[in-house]
Design a protein that fits this description.
With about 240 residues, this protein is of the alpha/beta class. The chain has two domains: about 5-15 and about 105-240, Rossmann fold, CATH 3.40.50.1000; about 20-100. It is built from eight helices and six strands, in the order E-H-H-H-H-H-E-H-E-H-E-E-E-H. Strand 2, helix 6 (about 135-140) and strand 3 (about 150-155) form a beta-alpha-beta unit.
Length: about 240
């Protein structure tokens, strides 16, 4: 079956970053935003991570957005969560833009997507859906890209699973009417992105910001930078045509 669709991760793939630097920096900005409302920074950050864990464990019974806010309300109380949710949303709409300073930029991402679109391939942004749509669209822009480049973008409002759950990838495929054999997942995380293989999707690891567990055998996984990725796609296109 021909290759018709390329799924891209965002953070560390299309948008270069050191994940710890980005996460620490952006959570610091969020803590600063919510401090006047009485949120102690360390406890707030721990609570955010608890919400992330709830999204990772999501079983498809509710959207990730609901899983996160249910956890937040369990920690701080329903009344406080409902009262201060607007401040969190304002952070992503306004203050989150400052987190761009914790990211890099690679013009090769734009060139890669233009090349693939010229070949008629469908493009999906399969970023782990922890973030609201606004924050996801901002990060797409930081990479020099546009939300219109992708026919599907996963956010915490519209998905009910997370990586590395293979059901996340199956949900993306179902929504696009895509057979696993038609798709390629491109990412930088050997655990989260290679989980697509369990859904029958072939994978390519982009290595400039590679994340992998020590001892994990990646010898059989296609990998490299954007030039190697385009070469791999050309080879797969010829092989399957």
């Amino acid at each position: 079956m021909n290759l018709t669709t390329v799924l891209f991760d965002l953070d560390g793939t299309l948008l270069p970053m050191k994940m710890d630097c980005f996460t620490g920096g952006y959570l610091g900005l969020l803590a600063q935003k919510l401090a006047p409302l009485g949120y102690e920074p360390k406890h707030l950050v721990a609570s955010i991570w608890a919400g992330v864990a709830a999204m990772v464990k999501n079983d498809g019974s509710r959207r990730n957005e609901e899983a996160f806010w249910e956890t937040f309300a369990q920690i701080y109380g329903q009344t406080r969560a409902e009262r201060d949710r607007a401040a969190v949303e304002e952070f992503y709409n306004v203050d989150f833009a400052a987190a761009q300073q914790f990211c890099g930029y690679d013009p090769a991402a734009r060139k890669c997507l233009d090349f693939l679109k010229a070949k008629g391939l469908r493009l999906i942004l399969a970023t782990n859906p922890f973030f609201p749509e606004k924050a996801t669209h901002l990060r797409i822009g930081w990479a020099g890209l546009s939300p219109e480049d992708f026919e599907q973008i996963t956010t915490y409002e519209n998905v009910s699973y997370c990586k590395p759950n293979p059901e996340y990838y199956r949900e993306v495929l179902r929504r696009g009417g895509i057979a696993p054999e038609e798709a390629l997942m491109v990412g930088n995380d050997a655990v989260e992105d290679l989980a697509a293989q369990k859904a029958g999707i072939r994978c390519f690891l982009l290595t400039p910001c590679l994340l992998h567990e020590e001892g994990l055998d990646l010898t059989s996984v296609p990998k490299g930078g954007f030039p190697e990725l385009l070469e791999y796609i050309e080879q797969e296109t010829r092989r399957l045509s």
